[in-house]
Amino acid sequence: MPVPLRTASHPGGAARGMRRVTVLGSTGSVGDSTLDLIGRNRGTYRLVALTAFRNVEKLIAQALDLRPELAVIGDPDLHDRLAEGLRGSGVRSDAGASALIAAAAEAADLVVAGIVGAAGLAPTMEAVRNGRTVALANKECLVCAGPLMTALAAERGATLLPVDSEHNAIFQVFDHERPENVDRIVLTASGGPFRRCSLAEMRDVTVEQAVNHPVWSMGDKISIDSATMMNKGLELIEAHCLFPVAQDRIEVLIHPQSIVHSMVAYRDGSVLAQLGTPDMRTPIAFALAWPERMTAPVAPLDLARIGSLTFEPADEARFPALRLAREAMAAGGTAPTILNAANEVAVAAFLARRIGFLDIAAIVEETLQRAETIAAGSLEEVWAVDRRARTLATQAMLAREGGQSGAAAGQPAPSRPSAVASMS
Ligand code: NDP
Ligand code: MG
Q1: Position in ligand 1 atom list of the atom nearest CA 30
Q2: Whether the predicted pLDDT of 13 surpasses 80
Q3: What is the CATH number of domain 180-276+314-401?
């Protein structure tokens, strides 16, 4: 399925002076990395809108520092506090779900889609509907409604620039003009914190162990997805949406050092890879400056110091989430929507210490078996499938609740890991 990732002309660029950027999910890990880059380049980038969900104090601090035109908080109960915090600053404020969508529609050269989960779908779709260039971190959007989003992008002349490090790597080495020469895509995966654990060892892992990613510092949800390897499963589907390569031509390869961010193999045997220090500011800088390049404050890659790069096959028996994602991709229709919705419910329940780690994939599998897959033709149908899957997943979760290890139960959830994604 060819996707017009690139449009013929670029709306912004250095030639036109300041680039106008909106950051959806500015208070998250991707948001932090984005604002770090923008803060270092205040003469090049002008912020249009920043959005958050509940972290109103952080949103106020960001807005007072970087002075966007608009700041939006998702939770309407926090609007008064936001307006009070921004009084006299000249930054407009708004709140609620429709304000998030309106923020995405504001005139901008680039919209960074950094909201986590399907909650980001409506605002991101709005940016696409307005023909914007979208720096896409929010992979759940594509998993949930990929065909609708890529079709809308083609219709509206929007450009999707992948920010997920693997897809950004592929984007950089993919021959967009001659995709028929591509033999396969190799998605690399760190393997997460439990790469060497048996299923028995994974049964009783704690939230703290699961969010403690060996390489990347990220938000809680994607950290858990990395531990179950559902993240790589979501990325398989994301890759299939973004690049015109058959499903059975997208491979997963474990690469614990996370230096090779992914590869594209060509039919003449050439394999092109993008390498770099694992720091999200590189793919975000790529999107901010595209089609130019900007300087990013990232540690230079020192391969002599790293010494060796290692690779090993992925194990779908120990990481069933990977198998479930591949099966959902093959089933097509709304199966990926169901997979994503069930996973969001299960990960939230694990983070709240209501279920055990292995219950996450079990809940997703049960939901996929029980929910009906259809060929969704509209966003409304996608939302209906998403809601139904969440109901079924919640039922599956309640049936398992309390079965987790006593050690993990009843403790408060951990705070979010450190802000700027970097090597840890
Ligand atoms: P975080 O949890 O750190 O941040 C999520 C952001 O989304 C926050 O700004 C949060 O606001 C906002 N948000 C959460 N729920 C809602 C909602 N219901 N409505 C509106 N906004 C909401 O996530 P990450 O930055 O880690 O990840 C963001 C996306 O990028 C995910 O899809 C992830 O898979 C993807 N990604 C992330 C990478 C990383 O390094 N972190 C790497 C590659 C991809 P608030 O703070 O107020 O709750
Ligand atoms: Mg990734």
Answers
A1: 25
A2: no
A3: 1.10.1740.10
Of 299, 254, 266, give the one whose Cα is nearest residue 281: 299
User: What CATH topology corresponds to 19-163?
Assistant: Rossmann fold (3.40.50)
Token output for 292: 């130019």
Q: pLDDT digit string (tens) for 43-92?
A: 999 999 999 999 999 999 999 999 999 999 999 999 999 999 999 999 99
Model pTM above 0.90? yes
Contact residues for 254 (Cβ-Cβ < 8 A; gap 6+): 188, 189, 190, 191, 195, 311, 312, 313, 314
221 by DSSP, 3-state: which? helix
- Strands 45-52, 19-24: pairing is parallel
Place of tokens 């002349």: 157
Alpha-carbon distance 91 to 249, whole Å? 48
Rounded to the nearest angstrom, the distance between the alpha carbon of 227 and the centre of ligand 2 is: 12
Q: What is the pLDDT of residue 3?
A: 43
Question: Which of 32, 53, 238 for mutating ligand 1's site (highest number of atoms within 8 Å of CB)?
Answer: 53
Mean pLDDT of 10-29: 78
The CATH 1.10.1740.10 domain(s) of the chain lie at: 180-276+314-401
| Closest of 228, 235, 246 to residue 336, by C-alpha | 235
Neighbours of 131 (CB within 10 A): 16
* Ligand 1 pocket list (CB less than 6 A): 25-31, 52-55, 74, 100, 114-116, 119, 137-140, 164, 216, 218-219, 221-222, 280, 416, 421
Task: Assess contact for 178 and 371: CB atoms under 8 A.
Answer: no
| Residue 206, amino acid | T
- Give residue-wise pLDDT tens across range 255-307: 999 999 999 999 999 999 999 999 999 999 999 999 999 999 999 999 999 99
Boundaries of CATH 3.40.50.720 in the chain? 19-163
